[in-house]
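User: Here's a structure from my thesis project, written as structure tokens. My advisor, Dr. K., wants to see whether a designed sequence matches the one we expressed. Can you design one independently, without my sequence as a hint?
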């Protein structure tokens, strides 16, 4: 559910990031697969997740469900670890979500992006 909350926020921010491209084209639709537009949308997602993970350990959706990203020592991940986690999560989604489903079979219940970034998702009940 936290991912659903965050996806709504991120999609809204990505729509806002698209506005300058629409304005540049005088209101016309943005051409699909334009590199600059794709980088702007990806950068928006990166800023959202890396910003929240690095500075608070949790996104807004994660706060609602008592979840937090932390390193194996229990600290908030730094910008580098959060960046690795973000891009590994993108790869996890591109592999039809296999990187997320992986935690079902993992003995420590870690996803691909957890393993690659040295982080884990923890639940802190209220």
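Assistant: Designed independently from the structure alone:
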């Amino acid at each position: 559910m936290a991912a659903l909350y965050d996806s709504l926020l991120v999609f809204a921010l990505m729509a806002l990031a698209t506005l300058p491209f629409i304005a540049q084209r005088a209101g016309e639709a943005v051409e699909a697969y334009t590199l600059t537009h794709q980088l702007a949308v990806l950068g928006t997602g990166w800023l959202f997740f890396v910003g929240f993970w690095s500075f608070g350990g949790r996104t807004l959706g994660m706060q609602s469900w008592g979840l937090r990203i932390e390193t194996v020592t229990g600290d908030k991940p730094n910008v580098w670890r959060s960046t690795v986690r973000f891009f590994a999560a993108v790869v996890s989604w591109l592999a039809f979500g296999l990187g997320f489903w992986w935690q079902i079979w993992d003995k420590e219940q870690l996803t691909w992006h957890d393993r690659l970034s040295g982080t884990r998702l923890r639940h802190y009940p209220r």
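When you compare it with your expressed construct, this may help: The chain has one domain: 2-123.
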